Amino acid sequence: MGGNYEKSIYNQLMEVMGRLDAVEKDLRVEKAEHKEDVDRLNTRISELASENQLLRDDNARLKSIINNDSSNTSNPPSTDQKAGKPANTYNGREKTGRRAGGQKGHKGTTLTKADVEEKLRSGKCRHQVREIGNPSGGKYITKYEIDLDIAPLVTEIRIYADEKGRFNIPPGYRSDVVYGPNVKAMAVALYSEGVMATERIASFLDAAGGNALGLSAGSVYHFCGSFSGKALGSIAHLEEGLLNQRVVMTDATAVTVNGEQSYIRNFSMEKAVVYRVMKDKTLAAMGKLRFLSEFTGILVHDHETALYHFGTGHGECNAHIIRYLKKNSEESGNSWPGEMISLLCEMNRERKQAISRGDVAFPEGLVMEYEERYRELIAKGRKENPKTKYKYARKDEKKLLNRMDKYMGNHLLFLHDFEVPFDDNMSERDLRKAKNRQKMAGGFRKESGHEMYCNILTIIETLKRRNMPILENIKKLFMGTPAIF
After folding, report:
1. pLDDT band at residue 64, thresholds of 50, 70 and 90?
2. pTM, to two decimals
3. In angstroms, how far is the first alpha carbon of the chain from the final one?
4. Burial of residue 277, with CB atoms counted within 10 A of its CB: 0-12 exposed, 13-18 middle, 19 or more buried
5. Are 484 and 234 in contact (CB under 8 A)?
6. Nearest in space to 265 (alpha carbons), one of 443, 450, 467
């Protein structure tokens, strides 16, 4: 009986163990199924995390684009929309706290009695007297009123026959009625300086002449084309002068010609500026410009790498790099961009003070100290870069660091050579006229009009640079006398 009991117990044990094995098998299957579910969930969580990070990066990138303005990029001021202000009202200059208007120590421009009396002595102004009150007393005080007296003038040209009875008519008088140099000069000046359409120029001059001129838009365009052709000799002379310069600033801006993008490039110095037409900004297009192909001096520009194939030296515009540094500081939150801006501004400030003292260069030790501080900030930037939160900002920051490292000598050339400016702002200012023309007319209809505009702008802007009377010298050029020697 004992054996049967033990056998019964054994059978029960085996039965329980079998059940346990079955349960364990079921648990293993269930565990495997749960593991697959967990793995799937973990994979999905990982995918969602990556997608979320991608969306966060893209959101930050879009916010960055929205925050772009003329203070931290090369965008024009017309794109500025900070603090809810309308376009063109944002000013990136730091407030000084000084009152608006003329500042103490600045030369005034108020016209004085002495100025007017000098103009009268020189014959520049016609003089007339208007009396107020009773002149019999003899005593009076003088006030001056300056005005323009505009009236149409018709000059009859009488051409007499020579000994053989032939009439030798000068080329300018082939037509029975022609316009004189004053009308032509004002039309050309308004086309360039006034940024007016030919129809509006014709209408304005006709109104100024008491509606007696009968001027047409076609005539205005013909005047401008004629002036452009007569200006070629003076422009060639200006280019020769540019070739003799050690330092020339250059920039380019896009314009539309017959619906296609083209460019105007300028070459600027203190006493002259030359504008040239370019189909594009490629190396091949630049090589076709005579000035660039022959220039042996230093070019100052905004990091146009194609320009490094021309000239013998290159200065980078630091006003542009400061905007890029400001943008990087806003996006990355790192400290090195702000410190680099402070260093560059300090260098420029000290350089201006040295020039005002009559110095021609910094002591070598000071230059080496500045360069070392520059390198230290680049090294600091490389340490901070991997910690930059957003991928796009980290990538842009790395590009900026690489550029400032590689072109350090070009960014700091103004330290070694005081003839090299800190920026190419002069060249940028010279291009604003072309942008105004683009906004007003929407571009040019023909390539010939594009070239005509550049030729006219070259002469007029150079006349302004040299403080030469614009209308008087335009008239001289129309009459065959070079405006610029």
Report:
1. low
2. 0.77
3. 139
4. buried
5. yes
6. 450
pLDDT at 336 over 70: yes
What is the rounded distance in angstroms from the CA atom of residue 431 to the CA atom of residue 428?
5
DSSP of 418-472, one letter per residue?
A: TTS-S--HHHHHHHHHHHHHHHHH-SBSSHHHHHHHHHHHHHHHHHHHTT--HHH
Neighbours of 472 (CB within 10 A): 12
Q: 468 and 474 in contact (C-beta within 8 Å)?
A: no
Q: How many secondary structure helices (H) and strands (E) does the chain include?
A: 17, 5
Residue with tokens 């000598």: 409
Q: Residue 142 contacts by C-beta under 8 Å, 6 or more apart in sequence? A: 113
DSSP string, 334-359: -SHHHHHHHHHHHHHHHHHHHHHTT-
Give yes or no for a contact between 196 and 204, defined as CB atoms under 8 angstroms apart.
Answer: yes
| DSSP E strand stretches across 168-290 | 247-257, 260-269, 272-278
Better-predicted residue by pLDDT, 61 or 254: 254
Judged by phi (left if over 0) then psi (alpha if -120 to 50, else beta), residue 388 lies in beta
Question: Above 60 in pLDDT, residue 401?
Answer: yes
Note whether 289 and 265 are within 8 A (CB). Answer: yes
